[in-house]
Write a structure and sequence with these properties.
Strand order of the largest sheet: 4-1-7-8
Distance between the termini: 64 Å
Structural class: alpha+beta
Number of strands: 8
Largest sheet: 4 strands, mixed
Shape: elongated
Order of helices and strands: HEEEHEEEEEH
Helix content: 10-25%
Length: 172
Amino acid sequence: EERVADLKEKIFNSKSRLVLLKEQILHNVIAEAKGVIVHRNRMGAGFTLEQVLYHLDGNKIYFQDNKEGVLDEKREFEVFNGNLLPGNHLVSVEMVYRGSGGLFSYVDGYRFKISSSYTFYASKGRIVKVSVVGHERGGLTTSLEDKPYVSYEVEQFRYNKENLSKVTKSTD
């Protein structure tokens, strides 16, 4: 009975180590691709970013509200910089803008919530940089509700030290 109990304990400990190793391998250690996600705020003066929330493959990776004016100060910032498994990945973003009309005070009461998702491919031996850009679309005839918009810019680089420093230094 003692030997059986001892073997059960050893098996349990081995399983625990395997689970930890699996988690470590899949989430941050052994990966053959690198992902960088950058937020860019290109909205005009008529809109103020109040809140931003990012998910990568269903996991929350970034949240910031503008209570201390943090989002007013940064027009571009890094949201994620980490290893990825090669394959398809989904980035989702929710941005909340408040109208700040200045001359047109009726805009001040409006709040705009934009939700958007984008699938990108992380290639083995490459760095993929996804820039998520909040901006206005249309012209003078575009209705106010249709102006806030999200677009995506994707760049891929060879995974080496030079490109890695270039990708991470390009943000504010």
